[in-house]
Design brief:
Length: 188
């Protein structure tokens, strides 16, 4: 039996233990399949790749200690995303109290699909965390409203309204960015 301490998660003994044979290949496969996409999604949501990476690693550590329960969820990656997001926003608030901290998503920090529009990248950075989180889950992970609502622990109506508001804000931002470029291209 492998005994693993889980930082920040109190237990009766101060450590969480799990049987490696019981978690088996399932968690390893889950980790390999979902860690990178989760880090990317949280990087877009939080605007800080280092914080996103640390948050996902923390959430994965918590997931492996509870794998028998977490693996039974409809979307275990949603559970990991939510734990990582909560941990990161809590950490972010602590950092912000200590000093003024306003991260910006660096383009090179987001390993994205080919053809990712740099203007979209900049427009996403102007959105609130809540709006970026909804767009990330809905369009990056292609999750439906109900799954997104469950992961973010909000109502489906909240997901719909945040999605609508975020898309409206992106539309305005991108129109303002693209209009001067179009005028330049047309020689005006």
């Amino acid at each position: 039996m492998f005994v693993m301490a889980t930082p920040g998660v109190p237990s009766r003994t101060g450590t969480e233990s799990f049987d490696v044979a019981a978690t088996g290949v399932a968690f390893t496969d889950f980790y390999r399949a979902h860690r990178t996409p989760l880090v990317r999604a949280l990087t877009v949501t939080l605007g800080d790749r280092a914080l996103a990476t640390e948050a996902v690693d923390e959430a994965m550590t918590r997931a492996v200690g509870r794998w028998s329960k977490v693996s039974g969820y409809t979307a275990p990656e949603g559970w990991v995303y939510r734990v990582a997001y909560n941990w990161a926003t809590s950490r972010f608030r602590r950092r912000k109290r200590d000093r003024e901290y306003a991260p910006r998503i660096a383009r090179e920090d987001v390993v994205s699909p080919a053809g990712f529009d740099p203007d979209l990248h900049d427009a996403l950075a102007t959105l609130s965390d809540e709006h970026r989180a909804v767009l990330t889950l809905r369009f990056f992970f292609d999750w439906n409203v109900e799954t997104t609502a469950e992961v973010l622990q909000v109502s489906p109506g909240t997901v719909k309204s945040r999605t609508s508001r975020a898309l409206d804000a992106l539309s305005v931002q991108l129109a303002a960015t693209h209009a001067p470029r179009r005028q330049q291209e047309m020689g005006q």
